[in-house]
Design brief:
By secondary structure, the protein is mainly alpha-helical. About 55% of the residues lie in helices and about 5% in strands. A three-stranded antiparallel beta sheet has the order 1-2-3. The longest helix is centred in the middle third of the chain and has 26 residues. About 45% of the residues are buried. It binds s-citryldethia Coenzyme A (SDX).
Length: about 400
C-alpha cells in the first residue's frame, strides 16, 4: 500500500471515501467546490454563500441566502456560561487549544436536543457551528490578551462581525478598513473545504461512530493544528522570520534538502497537489494587492518571494514536485490584517468548519454508511506462548 489512508466507509469495499462535495486534480492543480472552480468562487462569491453551497450542493437563490444568513446571524451568540469556561484556561493558552476545548463543550449545551439521525437537527448543528466559530475564536483571542470579550453585532455581515469581535475595544470606535474584511472573506473561501484532508477525514471517522457534530468538529480542529496540516501557516511565518532576509534564502533551501537537518520549507509540498496549489496562486496575487491597499510593506513578503523563486528552480523541489501550498502566503496577509501568528490556524479552522460539517452531514445522508474502520498491514510477532517472569 502507498501508505495513503483508506478505510472502508461502509460501501462494502475498501475503496476510498465517496463524496460529492469537493473535487481536486493534483496534477492539473484543479479545485472545484460542488463543481464550481475555486477561481470563480474566489472572484464572485462570499464565504457565507460558499458555506451554503458546500452544505446544500447548489448556489442559493437570493431568498434562500437571505434565510440562511438570517439563521447564521441569530445563532452567533455563545451561552453565557461558555464565556466563564475561558476563565479556566491558563492566560497564555494557545487559541487552538481553547477553540478545540470550547467547541467540544458545545456538546454539553446542545446534546440533549440533538438527534444525529434527524436531518433538521443536523442542519441546525451546522448553522450553530458556522455561526459560533468566529465568536468563540474571537473570545479565545480576547482572553489571551486580557481584553473583555465582545458580543456579535447582528447588523454586521459575517466577516466584518468577526473582525469587530476581534479588535473592537470599549474605549474607542473601531476604524475597519473594508479591504480587511474582503481579504479575510476571500481567504475563508479558499480554506473552506479540500476533500479528504487529514482533519476532514478525522471528522468523518469520528462522525461515523454516531458522535455528535460538536465532538466531531472538535476532533477536526485538533487534527488541523498539526504543523504538517493547518498549523503550517503559523510555521511558515516563524520560518520566514527565522530566515530573516532574502540573502539568507539560499542557506534555507540547502537546509531543507539536507536529510540530517529536520528543517522543512513550511508551506511547500502537498499530499495531492504535484503542481501549483490553485489556492496558493490566488493568495500570492492577493498578497501584493492587499498589502498595497493597506499600505503595509512587509519585508517577509520579499523573503517569501525569493524563497519561492529559489525553490522552484532547485532540482530537489522540482523532481519532488514540491510547490507552494495554501499556507505559504496566507500568513503574510493575516499579519497585514493585524491577526497575531498564533491565531493563523484558528482562521483556517473558522473557514474549514463549513467543509467539515458538510462532510459530517453527507456521511449521515449516505445510504449504507457504516462506522469507519481503518485497516493495517500487521508487522508484529508471529503467535507465541506466554513466558513466566522467572523464565524471561
Ligand atoms: C495543508 O491534505 C490537504 O488537502 C491539506 C490542505 C487542506 O486544505 O486541507 O491542503 C492544507 O495541510 C497543506 C500542507 C501544509 N503543510 C506544510 O506546508 C508543511 C510542509 N510540507 C510537508 O510537511 C509535506 O509536503 C506535506 C506534509 C504537506 C506532505 O507530506 P508528504 O506527502 O510526505 O510529502 P511528499 O510525499 O510529497 O514528499 C516527497 C518528498 C519527500 O522526500 P524524499 O523522501 O522523496 O527524499 O519531498 C520531501 C519529502 O521529505 N518534502 C519536503 C517538503 N515536503 C516534502 N522537503 C522539504 N520541504 C518540504 N516542505
Amino acid at each position: 500500500d502507498t501508505g495513503h489512508f483508506t478505510y472502508d466507509p461502509g460501501f462494502g469495499s475498501t475503496a476510498a471515501t465517496k463524496s460529492a462535495i469537493t473535487y481536486i486534480d493534483g496534477d492539473q492543480g484543479v479545485l472545484l467546490y460542488r463543481g464550481y472552480p475555486i477561481e470563480q468562487l474566489a472572484e464572485k462569491s462570499s464565504f457565507l454563500e460558499v458555506a451554503y453551497l458546500l452544505l446544500n450542493g447548489e448556489l442559493p437563490k437570493q431568498a434562500e441566502f437571505a434565510s440562511f444568513e438570517h439563521q447564521i446571524t441569530h445563532h452567533t451568540m455563545m451561552h453565557e456560561s461558555l464565556k466563564n469556561f475561558f476563565q479556566g484556561f491558563h492566560h497564555n493558552a494557545h487559541p487552538m487549544a481553547m477553540l478545540a476545548a470550547s467547541v467540544a463543550s458545545l456538546s454539553a449545551f446542545y446534546h440533549d436536543d440533538l438527534d444525529v439521525d434527524n436531518p433538521e437537527d443536523r442542519k441546525l448543528a451546522a448553522i450553530r457551528l458556522i455561526a459560533k466559530m468566529p465568536t468563540i475564536a474571537a473570545a479565545a483571542y480576547r482572553y489571551s490578551i486580557g481584553w473583555p470579550m465582545r458580543y456579535p453585532r447582528n447588523n454586521l455581515e459575517y466577516v466584518t462581525r468577526f473582525l469587530h469581535m476581534m479588535f473592537e475595544v470599549p474605549s474607542e470606535p473601531l476604524q475597519l478598513n473594508p479591504v480587511a474584511a474582503k481579504a479575510l472573506d476571500l481567504l475563508f473561501i479558499l480554506h473552506a473545504d479540500h476533500e479528504q484532508n487529514a482533519s476532514t477525514s478525522t471528522v468523518r471517522l469520528v462522525g461515523s461512530t454516531g458522535a455528535n457534530p460538536y465532538a466531531s468538529i472538535a476532533a477536526g480542529i485538533t487534527a488541523l493544528w498539526g504543523p504538517a496540516h493547518g498549523g503550517a501557516n503559523e510555521a511558515v511565518l516563524k520560518m520566514l522570520e527565522e530566515i530573516g532576509t532574502p540573502d539568507k534564502v539560499e542557506t534555507a533551501v540547502k537546509r531543507a534538502k539536507d536529510k540530517n537537518d529536520n528543517f522543512r520549507l513550511m508551506g511547500f509540498g502537498h499530499r495531492v497537489y504535484k503542481n501549483f496549489d490553485p489556492r496558493a496562486k490566488i493568495i500570492r496575487e492577493m498578497c501584493h494587492k492587499v498589502l498595497g491597499e493597506l499600505g503595509v510593506n512587509d519585508p517577509l513578503l520579499d523573503v517569501a518571494m525569493k524563497l519561492e523563486e529559489a525553490a522552484l528552480k532547485d532540482e530537489y523541489f522540482v523532481e519532488r514536485k514540491l510547490y507552494p501550498n495554501v499556507d505559504f502566503y496566507s500568513g503574510i496577509i493575516y499579519k497585514a490584517l493585524g491577526i497575531p501568528t498564533e491565531m493563523f490556524t484558528v482562521m483556517f479552522a473558522i473557514a474549514r468548519t463549513a467543509g467539515w460539517i458538510a462532510h459530517w452531514i453527507e456521511q449521515h445522508e449516505t445510504p449504507g454508511a457504516r462506522i469507519g474502520r481503518p485497516r493495517q498491514v500487521y508487522t508484529g510477532s508471529a503467535p507465541r506462548d506466554f513466558v513466566p517472569a522467572d523464565k524471561r
